[in-house]
């Protein structure tokens, strides 16, 4: 059941069909959900810290902007800002230390690198729920700094490490947000390396989606970094229910 | 999380190796966390500590034996971070496979599919792919049959089979079908919750699961 919930949460981030109701899994209140996600985070394939997964879930459960009146939109923005701030306060080092107590391996550094990448990627993801001109949203420079964080942290991981396969989600987000050609090359290389470890077509599908997004940027040549359309909505508009995890 | 202990640990270089090696992950000495146990127990599976035993492979054809072996030695490491012998809940599904054809065929399907794509394109055997497809179709048929008589089937076994079918889609495509399987699983969970202790009753949840199965047949 926990595997299904984790897949549902992560899968909802870029899926065109989003109907994430935790009550289906027998989870009726937030406290139970947090405990349950924490139970699964040690050995879950997704390897995303439970607290960040919880924030991703909260975003996934938000209604579409087109369904909201101004007051509801304002409320949604406030909630997104709260989630963003909470995500920014997440401490990857502290989390990695706690997880180490339950790990059969000495992998404190690896856990910290992956958690740091997930934190930066989750911040980028959550911030996309805000209007581009919202005061709490990131500047272009700040956004690129977070992309660099994802790239730097994941660059430490060796492909033979057990956590390597679990880094496609933050890697994809970094790729979608990256303006620097060198970082885009790194993202593609990282996804190809994951594909060499796991022969799953989901990785080539992710790379195709990134190529499409980058081409979209180039067609908006008037802007150095496109912000005319939310890339997350672009991926969802593909209607292919892309799964990246 | 509740538990606190200090087992002897392995260096991180002893992490699970990629599937194309024969490295065997050794468990840490002393007591291990019960998180893996808890992970398996969430599916209400009892924890069995005996290694894989030959009866699983008896009276199966050579191809099926090969796929089950591949599943146990290679594939099931990929669904977890730490592959601890006797504590990997994915590997432990093998113990239930012989008694539950839906699970056996889901395992055969995902393992054969995984093996097929693991091989370099020039060495892939279409016969393996065809066996994966046939096993997948059998698994879906068993799921369909189970829905008609849900009171006599272990829902957790069915959900385990669905998770494996989701994984099969990650391997084969990565877009679209996984969502169908996931929504079908959620419909199944919802149906069981709504009709706990009763015989199968036609309901909105059951209809959504049936539509999911029917769409699979049409594909």
H/E element sequence of chain A? HHHHHEHHHHHH
Structural class of chain B: mainly alpha
Average predicted local confidence, pLDDT of chain B: 68
CA-based gyration radius of chain B: 18 Å
Helix content range of chain A: 55-70%
Characterization of this structure:
By secondary structure, chain A is mainly α. Chain A has eleven helices and one strand, in the order αααααβαααααα. In chain A, helix 6 packs antiparallel against helix 7. The radius of gyration of chain A is 17 Å and the shape is globular. Chain B is globular, with a radius of gyration of 18 Å. Chain B has nine helices and one strand. Chain B has 219 residues and is an all-alpha fold. The termini of chain B are far apart. The chains are: A mainly alpha (245), B mainly alpha (219). The interface between A and B is large, with 53 and 55 residues. Strand 1 of chain A pairs parallel with strand 1 of chain B.
Outline the secondary-structure elements.
The complex is a heterodimer of chains A (245) and B (219).
Chain A: H1 2-12, H2 30-40, H3 50-60, H4 70-88, H5 92-100, E1 105-106, H6 108-127, H7 140-155, H8 168-177, H9 181-197, H10 202-219, H11 231-237
Helix pairs in contact in A: 1-3, 2-3, 3-4, 3-6, 4-6, 5-6, 6-7, 6-8, 7-8, 8-9, 8-10, 9-10
Chain B: E1 10-11, H1 35-41, H2 62-73, H3 89-92, H4 94-97, H5 101-118, H6 126-148, H7 155-172, H8 177-194, H9 204-218
Helix pairs in contact in B: 2-5, 5-6, 5-7, 6-9, 7-8, 8-9
Name its key features.
heterodimer; A: 245 residues; mainly alpha; B: 219 residues; 9 helices; disordered N terminus; disordered C terminus
What's this, in brief?
The complex is a heterodimer of chains A (245) and B (219). Chain A is mainly α. Chain A contains eleven helices and one strand.
């Amino acid at each position: 059941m926990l595997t299904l919930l984790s897949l549902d949460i992560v899968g909802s981030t870029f899926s065109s069909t989003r109907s994430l109701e935790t009550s289906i899994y027998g989870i009726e209140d937030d406290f139970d959900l947090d405990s349950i996600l924490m139970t699964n985070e040690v050995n879950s394939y997704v390897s995303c810290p439970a607290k960040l997964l919880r924030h991703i879930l909260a975003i996934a459960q938000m209604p579409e902007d087109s369904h909201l009146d101004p007051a509801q939109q304002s409320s949604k923005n406030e909630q997104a800002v709260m989630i963003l701030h909470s995500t920014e306060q997440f401490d990857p080092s502290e989390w990695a230390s706690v997880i180490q107590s339950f790990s059969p391996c000495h992998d404190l550094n690896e856990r910290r690198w992956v958690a740091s990448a997930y934190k930066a990627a989750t911040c980028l993801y959550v911030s996309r729920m805000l209007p581009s001109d919202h005061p709490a949203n990131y500047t272009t420079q700040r956004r690129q700094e977070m992309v660099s964080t994802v790239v730097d942290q994941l660059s430490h991981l060796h492909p033979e490490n057990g956590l390597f396969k679990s880094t496609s989600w933050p890697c994809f987000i970094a790729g979608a947000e990256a303006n620097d050609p060198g970082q885009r090359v790194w993202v593609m290389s990282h996804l190809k390396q994951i594909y060499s470890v796991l022969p799953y077509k989901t990785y080539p599908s992710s790379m195709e989606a990134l190529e499409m997004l980058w081409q979209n940027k180039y067609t908006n040549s008037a802007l150095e970094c496109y912000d005319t359309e939310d890339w997350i909505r672009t991926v969802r508009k593909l209607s292919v229910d892309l799964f990246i995890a | 999380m509740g538990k606190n202990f200090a087992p002897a640990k392995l260096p991180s270089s002893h992490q699970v190796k990629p599937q194309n090696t024969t490295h065997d992950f050794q468990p840490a000495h002393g007591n291990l966390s019960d998180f893996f146990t808890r992970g398996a127990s969430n599916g209400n599976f009892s924890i069995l500590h005996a290694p894989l035993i030959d009866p699983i492979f008896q009276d199966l054809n050579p191809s099926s034996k090969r796929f089950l072996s591949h599943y146990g030695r290679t594939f099931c490491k990929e669904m977890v971070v730490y592959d601890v012998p006797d504590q990997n809940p994915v590997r432990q599904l093998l113990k239930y496979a012989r008694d539950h054809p839906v699970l056996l065929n889901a395992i055969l399907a995902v393992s054969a599919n995984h093996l097929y794509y693991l091989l370099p394109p020039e060495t892939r055997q279409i016969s393996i792919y065809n066996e994966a497809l046939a096993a997948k179709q059998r698994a879906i048929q068993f799921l369909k049959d189970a829905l008609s008589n849900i009171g006599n089937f272990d829902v957790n076994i069915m959900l385990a089979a669905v998770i494996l079918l989701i994984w099969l889609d990650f391997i084969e495509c990565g877009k679209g079908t996984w969502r169908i399987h996931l929504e079908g699983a959620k419909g199944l969970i919802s149906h069981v919750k709504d009709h706990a202790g009763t015989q199968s009753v036609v309901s909105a949840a059951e209809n959504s699961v049936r539509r999911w199965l029917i769409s699979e047949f049409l594909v």
